[in-house]
Structure formats: structure tokens, C-alpha cells
Design brief:
The protein is α+β, with helices and mostly antiparallel strands and 373 residues long. It is 75% helix and 9% strand. It is built from six helices and five strands. It has helices at 5-8, 12-21, 42-47, 66-77, 122-247, 253-372; strands spanning 26-29, 37-40, 84-91, 94-103, 113-120. Strands 2-1-5-4-3 form a five-stranded antiparallel beta sheet, with helices on both faces. A hairpin with a 7-residue loop joins β1 (26-29) and β2 (37-40). α5 packs antiparallel against α6. The radius of gyration is 61 Å and the shape is elongated.
Length: 373
């Protein structure tokens, strides 16, 4: 509405005559930081108690905080405010808001001016008072509900204490389970090490048996050699006997045969010595095999002992798990009590929600009234 005055103010007299006939609170002022008042409508004079506002009266002087008002007008003049500024004004027990617009006449800048439109907001103040009273009533309702909630929360707190105590017991039992599990793990690892050692021993034993087998083969070959020599010796001895029988006293060939027999006998003795050495090696190998199997047996025995210890540890774990289950049953019972208390809190909170929704509805209604004003 204020911007429509630009055309009317081509004639100051006509403009003021029109403004006088309007049922509006309007004040005109010069477009500068002091805003000297040049016109006050009759309605503004009566309701705002501005008097004649003639002479050198300024818009800034109407407000207590003149410096702040001056800065606001300067911002409007500098174009830092897009459209207008609003200023609060008190007239006795009535409150107003002054909307200041800058009107410019593009044809004649001398006719530029501030147009101040006033609207009363006292109704909003009364509405705020009613709101406070309503809020006080609702606050009492909320306080009562909160006290009831506090009682329910106290009951919940007691139950929560029981839950906490049982939880601590469960925690200790869980720690015990963890300890037993760690012990079982170590025991199983030790059993695995024993089994690995048995495997190594058995591998060594297998290698020893393989060597023993090879040596046995050598003994068989040597025995065959001795048998061959024995056969030759027998044959030569037979020949020597025949030759000696033929020669009679002159059995020269007997000496040759006898010499061959002696050589064969020497070879037989060497083979026998070799056989004795091989047999000694076989005996030593047999001893190694016996010792290896003994050690393997001992390792197996230790593995069995470790397995038994692992079984005992597992039984302890099962016992600890049963204790955990009993604790969980107790926690479940306490949780049910806590659930009942929580339902009570939920019901109380529903009452608070209804009161809060009422406050929200009042706020929306007040907002609508404020928009109408």
C-alpha cells in the first residue's frame, strides 16, 4: 500500500488530503538518517500519541534506541535492506510495529520520502500471556506425570541393579570360559607337538629299517660268495685226492692242489670276517630300531596323557557353560520385570505427548493469528 503513494505525492496537498481520509496509521519523513517527520495521519496522531509532530521532530526521536534506529534507516537508504525495515514502538500500554519503506519518485527525487506504516501488536502480547498461563497449566500436568515417571524409573533402577549384578557374574563366568578355552588350546597344541615328534621318530625308524634291509642284501651276496668258494674248495679237494691216488708216492700234483686249497681257505676266512662285520652292523641297526620304537612309545604315551588332560579341560568348559546358562535365565527374569516398568514409562510418556501436542496446536494457532495481524 505504501508504494502506491508515489503517484499521489506529485501534489503534496493532494497527497496529504488523501492520507487524511485513510483509516491508517501513516507517518511521512525525509529520506535521510534522521528522518525528519513531514506528515502524521490523524489516526497515527491519536493512537500513537505523536502530537502534531511538527517543527524539527524526527522519526529517530520517537524511539529510545536512537542509534540503532539510525543505523537501520542508513541500511535502508544504502540498499542493504531489500524492501523495508521493521521497528518496535511502545505507546503507553500498547505496542506497535513500524514498517518503514523508502518511496522514490523517478521523475522528481525531491519528493522521495520514508513512509512509515504502523500496526498494533498488543493482541499478540495478550495472546502470549494466555499462552504462558496455558503453558503453566500444562507444566503442572507434565510435572505430575514426571513424578509418576520418576517412581517408575526408580523401580526400573532397582531392576537394572539386579541386571547389572547378574551381568557381572556372567562376565566372570565368561572370563572363566575364556581361560579354560585358552588352556585347552595350549593342551591341544602340546598334543600336536607330541604327535609331530612321533611322526619324526617313525620316519627315522623307517630309514633305519631301510638301511638294515640293504645291509641284509649285502650279507646274502657274501653268503653266496662263501658258498661258491666252498663248492670250489670241495671240488679241488676231490681232484687233489684223485691225483694223489694216481701218483702214489710221486704225487707232485698234490702240492699244486694243496696250494689252491690254501688260497681258497684264505678267501673263505676273509669272507667270514666280512660276514662278521656285517652281522655286527646289523646288530647295531637292530638296537637303533629298538630304541627308536621305545622313544616312539614314550611320545605316544605322553600324547595320550595330554589328550586326557584336554578332555578334563573340556569338561570344565561344559560346567562353566552350564553356569552361564543359569545366569542368563536369571537375567531373563530381571529383564521381564524391566520390560513391565518400561511399559509403565511408555504410558506416562503418552500423557506427556498429549500435553505436548496441545501446546503445539496452540503454537500453530498463535502463528496463524500473528500472520493475520
Amino acid at each position: 500500500m505504501g508504494r502506491g503513494f508515489a503517484g499521489l505525492r506529485r501534489s503534496t496537498a493532494i497527497g496529504r488530503e488523501v492520507l487524511d481520509r485513510l483509516d491508517a496509521l501513516v507517518v511521512l519523513a525525509t529520506p535521510d538518517s534522521e528522518a525528519r517527520i513531514t506528515y502524521v495521519s490523524p489516526q497515527a496522531e491519536r493512537q500513537l500519541k505523536l502530537g502534531s509532530a511538527g517543527g524539527n521532530a524526527t522519526l529517530v526521536q520517537l524511539f529510545d534506541d536512537s542509534d540503532r534506529i539510525r543505523r537501520q534507516l542508513q541500511r535502508l537508504l544504502a540498499g542493504q535492506v531489500k524492501d523495508h525495515v521493521e521497528l518496535d514502538y511502545q505507546a503507553g500500554d500498547r505496542q506497535f510495529v513500524a514498517k518503514v519503506l523508502l518511496l522514490k519518485n523517478t521523475e522528481n527525487q525531491s519528493e522521495d520520502c520514508f513512509v512509515v506504516q504502523w500496526r498494533e501488536v498488543s493482541l499478540r502480547v495478550r495472546d502470549d500471556q494466555q499462552r504462558r498461563e496455558s503453558d503453566l497449566h500444562r507444566s503442572s500436568v507434565v510435572t505430575e506425570a514426571v513424578s509418576q515417571i520418576a517412581a517408575a524409573v526408580e523401580e526400573l533402577s532397582v531392576t537394572a541393579g539386579e541386571v547389572a549384578a547378574n551381568t557381572r557374574v556372567v562376565k566372570e563366568a565368561a572370563e572363566s570360559v575364556n581361560g579354560k578355552a585358552a588352556e585347552s588350546r595350549d593342551i591341544f597344541f602340546a598334543a600336536k607337538g607330541a604327535i609331530d615328534e612321533i611322526s619324526r621318530r617313525m620316519t627315522e625308524t623307517s630309514a633305519t629299517l631301510a638301511r638294515l634291509s640293504e645291509k641284509t642284501k649285502l650279507i646274502d651276496a657274501m653268503v653266496s660268495t662263501i658258498q661258491g668258494i666252498a663248492d670250489q674248495t670241495n671240488l679241488l679237494a676231490l681232484n687233489a685226492a684223485i691225483e694223489a691216488a694216481r701218483a702214489g708216492a710221486a704225487g707232485r700234483g698234490f702240492g699244486v692242489v694243496a696250494d689252491e686249497v690254501r688260497q681258497l681257505a684264505s678267501r673263505a676266512r676273509g669272507a667270514a670276517s666280512e660276514i662278521a662285520g656285517r652281522i655286527a652292523e646289523v646288530r647295531n641297526g637292530t638296537i637303533e630300531v629298538s630304541e627308536g620304537f621305545e622313544e616312539s612309545f614314550q611320545e605316544a604315551l605322553r600324547g595320550a596323557t595330554n589328550a586326557e588332560a584336554a578332555a578334563i579341560a573340556l569338561e570344565d568348559i561344559l560346567t562353566a557353560n552350564r553356569q552361564v546358562r543359569e545366569m542368563l535365565l536369571r537375567i531373563n527374569s530381571a529383564t521381564e520385570q524391566q520390560e513391565e516398568a518400561t511399559m509403565e514409562i511408555s504410558n506416562r510418556l503418552s500423557g506427556i505427548l498429549v500435553a505436548t501436542e496441545g501446546t503445539a496446536d496452540d503454537s500453530r494457532r498463535r502463528f496463524g493469528v500473528r500472520e493475520e495481524l
